[in-house]
Amino acid sequence: MDGSVRKVETVWEEDTAIVEGVDISGPWNRMFGQRVIWDYTPELIDEIASLPGAESFAWCYQCGKCVPVCPVDVVGDYGPRKLYRKAQTGLNLLDSPDLWLCTTCMNCLRVCPKQVDMVQIMPAAREQALLSGRPLPAELQEALENTARYGNPLGQPPRKREAWVKNAGVPVPILHQIQRPVEWLWWVECYPSYHPRGIDASIALARVFHALGLDFGILGREEKCAGDSQRLAGEHGLFEMLAEENIRTLSKYEFQHIVVTDPHALNAFRKQYPKYGGQYDVWHYTTLLAHELPRLRPLLTRQLPYRLTFHDPCYLGRHNGEYDAPRQLIEALPGVEFTEMPRCRQNSYCCGGGGGGMWLDSFAAGHQRRRLSEERVLEAVATGADTLVICCPYEVSRFEDAVKSTGQEGQLRVRDIAELLAEAMGLIGEEPAQA
Amino acid sequence: MTLAVVLKQVPDVVEELAIDPSGTDLDRDSVAYVVNEYDEHALEEALLLREVTGEDVVVIGVDTTGELDQALYTALAKGAQRAVKLVGDFESAWLSTRALAGLLAPVLQELSPRLVLTGVQAPDDLDGQLAPTLAALLDWPHTGVVIGTELVDGAVRARKELWGGLTLELELATPAVLGIQAARATPRYVPVGRVRQAMREATIEEVEVDVPAESAPGVARLRVPEAASQAEMLTGRPGEVAERILEILRARGLC
I need a labelling partner for B255 at 20 to 30 A (CA). Which of A216, A276, A330, B235 fits? Predict the structure, then answer.
């Protein structure tokens, strides 16, 4: 903000204006009367914009393009433009519930002519709130404390991280046991290691990898949360600690590529870990499997009589540009019908779990007409689909809960792409692997 | 003046505990430690008092695990001013609460704080003996099960939980020792960056102590609890369930 600009209480304009001899004054209107041309202060905007990474907060010129594409505004009263306007009128973002509602889905940045980047602004503002000792929502505090203590936000024992392997039904090599190089290091992540429905998808994916003869291994108990959502929730120090530990662990083993289950881990490895010296060739599992389609397709022998629709994960699609691989896999499934949801690909609707939203569910629900996951499930049902296909581990629990809370039980199933592929390959049945 | 907070680490039960081949101790190599939950509340209560009165908060602990630094640095990052660690040859020694209090009392005496706060109990001190034993050794007043404090001239007002929702407010002359059940607020979050900053910049003061020779009862044998599945889930309308509960209690002669 230009320091020479000051609030002017009253402005009187000339009654007549003559330019090059031509009188251009129109009939009298209120513009000629007394008016306040500044009724706000720039201090709170400067406070946010002065945080490293949050500079673009001050660039907003209030066009409002971000509001209709904001998934949070669809179910509540929010939107990046409104944050700027509220700051103008004296409401401090750092003390507002708004601080915790953004899921960093990036749809606003996609349309913003000024490139106001909430994906950087929000973590910076949240970090400032934490460092200044402001209280944070209790459920988020618990997830952060769990991550710091146990390396996963669920508060599960670190040693149990590899326990799902026992039920995989196929060999899942764990690197600290096999002590040999692998081609693919599979970064399983937290929910696929601990959450019951996440484990179902991990078992399905392990069987698909095994059937393809991939040379893969996992870190098991040595793996810790990649930490991207904690970073976006404002815990940069925790993220740094996790990144340093994970990079140290990865340096012990030989592998050629990393394949991740979780798009949030993909984002961390691609965009953040290189800053800490971790340079890897990282693939999302849908990208890897789409790449393997020539070998995979002949194995897809079972007809699946399902009507599918697909949810693009924000951190796979908008954040990392992968829209096609999941669709190629869906189209390869024999017997299925596939319908897109109205909000898909670049304009996909957010499930609400990103940017720390996974651990702010009750808090956010208190500020919204319905959850983002509920809004999305209703959109999926409206397509006539009986199965909502997902490929991000946050989504299975969020959408299954939303199916129940919106009264759609029996109408819509939520299944990971890996589960559908494994079923088409005859590696699992119609029911979840652990059922 | 200072507020002293006694912190203790206890085994984290999130990870399954294993018994050492000796059969008399936990397998300490596989144990992860956390700060006793009630001690976290004692620290929070001290920090809340500090916000009003500006007292320095000193955290103090006996490093029986070799891992106490992490807990002390976290306390410093949360807002404590000093950290004191009692070190000695505790390898494979099991310290009773009484022995622990014996090591802490002289150090606390020298600190001459306005208050000593510690957790009302701990997994290895289920009787909650630490605070009263410290008070007895220091000859200072004590109360336990405290759920809120306020410092006034020459005294501390402590709210104490009784039974049936009753609370009791006491005024104790200071210095006093309090066993904290719960702080007035949830123990605060401290960003990891702040803890790491404390690890780089802060100093932990060390006091050498001798392991006390004591005649405490030794552990003869540790056992893992045996799993039993005798739970009966009662279903039906509330009235029916209540009837069934009464039947069960009567059948066992409990009412």
Answer: B235
B-chain CB neighbours of A150 within 8 Å are 14
Type of residue numbered A426: G
CB contact under 8 A, A131 and B191: yes
Put simply, the answer to whether A157 touches B192 (Cβ < 8 Å) is no
Q: How far apart are CA A65 and CA A111, in angstroms?
A: 7
Which H/E stretch holds residue B159?
Answer: strand B155-161
**Residue B166 φ then ψ, to 5°:** -80, 140
* Distance of residue B44 Cα from the nearest chain A Cα, in angstroms: 13
Distance from CA of B37 to the nearest CA of A (A): 13
State yes or no: pLDDT of A35 exceeds 70.
no
Whole-number Å distance between alpha carbons of A201 and A195: 10
Q: Are B64 and B41 in contact (CB under 8 A)?
A: no
Looking at CA atoms only, how far is residue A49 from chain B in angstroms?
Answer: 21
Contact between B216 and B103 under an 8 Å Cβ cutoff? The reply is no
Alpha carbon distance A127, A233 (integer Å): 8
Q: Which of B226, B142, B237, B217 is nearest to B180 (CA)?
A: B142
SS3 A425: coil
Please report which confidence band the pLDDT of residue A363 belongs to, taking 50, 70 and 90 as the band edges.
Answer: very high
**Contact between residue A144 and residue A233 where contact means Cβ atoms under 8 Å apart:** yes
What dihedral angle (degrees, nearest 10) is formed by the CA atoms of A326, A332, A338, A339? Answer: 40
Cα separation, A152 vs B43, whole angstroms: 25
Which is higher by pLDDT, A294 or A25?
A: A294
ipTM of the complex: 0.86
Q: Do B191 and A235 touch (CB under 8 A)?
A: yes
Q: What is the pTM of this model?
A: 0.89
**CB pairs < 8 Å spanning A and B:** 44
Contacts of B200 (CB under 8 A, 6+ apart): none
Half-sphere exposure of A348 (CA within 13 A, CB side): 26
Whole-Å CA distances, B57 to B4, B50, B81, B236: 6, 7, 5, 54
In angstroms, what CA-CA distances link B19 with A211, B93, B97? 41, 16, 21
Residue A64 Rama label (left phi>0; alpha psi -120 to 50; beta): left
What is the spatial distance between Cα A391 and Cα A261, in angstroms, rounded to a whole number? 8
Q: Provide, as residue numbers in chain A, all residues whose Cβ is less than 8 Å from the Cβ of B191.
A: 127, 130-131, 235-238
Sign of CA dihedral B124, B126, B128, B129: negative
* CA atoms of A60 and A57, how far apart (whole Å): 6
Interface of A with B (CB under 8 A): 127, 130-131, 133, 135-136, 138, 141, 144-145, 148-150, 155-159, 235-238, 240-241
Mean pLDDT by 10 residues, chain B (255 residues): 96 90 88 96 98 96 94 98 94 82 97 98 95 98 97 95 92 97 97 96 96 77 82 88 93 85
Interface contact flag, B14 A148, Cβ < 8 Å? no
Contact B55, B5 (CB under 8 A): no
Cβ–Cβ below 8 Å for A141 and B186: yes
What per-residue confidence (pLDDT) applies to A31? 64
Chain B residues touching residue A241 (CB < 8 angstroms): 192, 196
**Residue B198: half-sphere exposure toward Cβ, Cα within 13 Å:** 22
Q: Contact A157/B194, CB-based, under 8 Å?
A: no
Distance of residue A202 Cα from the nearest chain B Cα, in angstroms: 22
CA angle B27, B33, B34 (to 5 degrees): 155
pLDDT tens for residues A48-86? 999 999 999 999 999 999 999 999 999 999 999 999 999
